[in-house]
Amino acid sequence: MIKVLINKGWICLGMASILLPAMPARSIPLFARKYNVTCFTCHVSPPFLNDFGRRFQANGYNLPGSGSDQTAQADQPALPLALLSQPMIAHRKVTDRLVPSRSLSSTEFSGLELAIFSSASLGPHFSYFAETSVLYEKGETSIDLVSAHLLYTDVLDNGLGNLNFRLGKMRAFIPFAANAMFSNATPLIYSYNPFNFKYDSVFSVMNVAEPSLEISAFGLLPQLLDGLRWEIGVSGGTKNNINLDVSHAYVFSLNQTVYIDNAPIRFGISYYGGIQNAMHKSDSVRWQNVLRRAGIDVELYDPWTKRFNLFGQYVVANDNHVLEQGGIRNMKGGFAGLNIIVLPEKLYAFGRYDYMKTDETEEIRRQLDIGIRYHLLPNLIITGAFTSLSEALPQLTDRSTISYGAGILFGL
Amino acid sequence: MLCCGAALLLMSSELHGTKPDVKRPASELLTRGKKIFEITCAPCHGKQGHGDGPVSANLRTKPWDLVRGVYHNRSTFAGKNPSDYDLYLTLTRGLHYTTMPFFRQMEMNDRWAVVEFIKTLSPIFSDTSRYSPPDTMSFTGFVPVSPKSLIEGRKIYAKECTRCHDKSNKSGTIPTMFDENGEPRPLIDLGDPSVYKYSESVMDVFRIVSTSVASHRMSAEDTWNVCNYAWSLRSTDQFPGIDENEK
């Protein structure tokens, strides 16, 4: 299923940013069961990965340094399934200064979304990972195959994870900060939409943040530089809606981790570029848009307590053909955030500020997101969040959206 | 019974130093062990092994300080260094219900390489006075699980163990205990499966008890009885046929 968000672009975008738990947890209790450990072996708090979890992920969901997973099959649970859900309820108030009639206030339930995970070793070097989302909302049920891919790990058979492959529907591992954020609010730059400058245009999200059909190679290169991760992939693209899809795209990223008193500092570069096929709503005109996204990212912990985690990303984007008659769009934006481990394995606080500007349209969007999460149990988390979003597009929009809500995240 | 006996023989031979023959060219092995340690262990234990890796700030039970060289999961007696196989066993099995995973999928030679590297982190492993192979414990006097053993074990438990393991602390006399890192140790509820970090069988409980507090207090038979009882607190699954009330 592909979420169809057509028309009323601003409203959809605002709602998507605020209400949808758009970055559902990708943690998988299956691994905790498989290796007989707690969630905190790999997570600061799910889905935020710690250093060990990042290495576990980079090693193709095998324990780092373990080489080919010779005996993992014997260790696997009989039923390689895990479940996660994150229902939330949120109150939202939208104030539109240009069109007061569009102002609204409401309390909404995110719906019941159940993420079903499966992962298992298929023998030495091979494993798979799959995630399916079942959403029940407003009387309707939808099923979405979020991710399903095959992993071929430790291709060089040296136990260092130099070269691994993934094939299937998936997200890129490295460049995007989903693994470094407690917040559920999608970063604005991930939902940058050059086609969305007026209400009746087609709606797009920044495709690299969404799972796509892809083949990628990734790994660690300790022989060259300790802490260096790399990933390169070719995406078959995603179809955002009936009027827009990505025909193909390339993903490349490098990320280096260094340590000061065992506190990691990560910095990286990433690039995503490709071709989008666009079509006017009337199906009268078709054209292609070349898109390019390049970014730098950084994440660091304070070296004294290692409880303060700062992170940020800055992205520049270029689209060369966003209207049927042409039209270039250049975007600059990013975010900076702080996660705080208040009580280990129990209480966390987070905050993030987003900024995004599109040069040609002078569209400016800002977002502040703060919240807390509390672990009643390792796999049962109470979350609360406050989000403020302002969107300004000269002559068209000047709106602010305030949202606050609470929810639970639980996994089995 | 036969299975238990075979397992005892196997474990006993392992603990007495007959670990698998592994070719270990020292420098290559240490280099290999260091590399794996930095990838696999350093996130929690830190590159220098002080237990202060980047993950440690988020863990309530801090990763073990490998430099201090204090090890509970030993087959050697108090004050002695753990055997190489003790370290290998911890690495292989992990510590159950903690954040320490098992690494039995890691190639055997790599596990030995990590063990060799871990030994370079602490000065205790270069102190020859702390090696005394004859002091390694043995599994002599094995007492199989039976109602009689459990009853005897319960008596000994009430007399010897509840001073520290009476979770309710009804007597109010249990002093605060500290571990080797100076951290307060909570009272251990032996009915909680998660406290059996090192143990996969009653033999592991016997090994831990024999090399620590009870090493000079109890006979082998009493130790087996009390271990059988302690293990039974954890679960009845291990002892089919034993009535819960008989505990």
What does the model show?
The complex is a heterodimer of chains A (412) and B (247). Chain A contains 4 helices and 21 strands. Chain A has 412 residues and is mainly beta. In chain A, the strands form 2 sheets. In chain A, strands 3-6-7-8-9-10-11-13-14-15-16-17-18-19-20-21 form a 16-stranded antiparallel β-barrel. A two-stranded antiparallel ribbon of chain A has the order 1-2. In chain A, strand 13 and strand 14 (263-279) form a beta hairpin. Chain A is globular. In chain A, 49% of the residues are buried. Residues 1-27 of chain A have low confidence and may be disordered. With 247 residues, chain B is mainly α. Chain B has helices spanning 2-15, 26-45, 84-93, 108-121, 147-165, 202-210, 220-234; strands spanning 177-178, 184-185. The longest helix of chain B is centred in the first third of the chain and has 20 residues, at 26-45. Chain B is globular. Chains A and B meet through helix 3 of A and helix 2 of B.
Category by helix and strand content of chain A: mainly beta
Low-confidence stretches of chain B: 6-24, 169-173, 238-247
Shape, principal axes of CA atoms of chain A: globular
Form type of chain B: globular
Beta-strand content of chain B: under 5%
Task: Give the ordered list of helices and strands of chain A.
Answer: HHEEHHEEEEEEEEEEEEEEEEEEE
Order of helices and strands of chain B: HHHHHEEHH
- Outline the biggest β-sheet of chain A: 16 strands, antiparallel, barrel
Q: Give the overall average pLDDT of chain A.
A: 80
> What is the average per-residue confidence, as pLDDT of chain B, rounded to a whole number?
73
Taking strands numbered 1, 2, ... along the chain, how are they ordered across the largest sheet of chain A? 3-6-7-8-9-10-11-13-14-15-16-17-18-19-20-21
Query: Biggest interface and its residues per chain?
Result: A-B, 42 and 33 residues
Strand content of chain A: over 45%
Q: What is the rounded Rg of chain A?
A: 21 Å
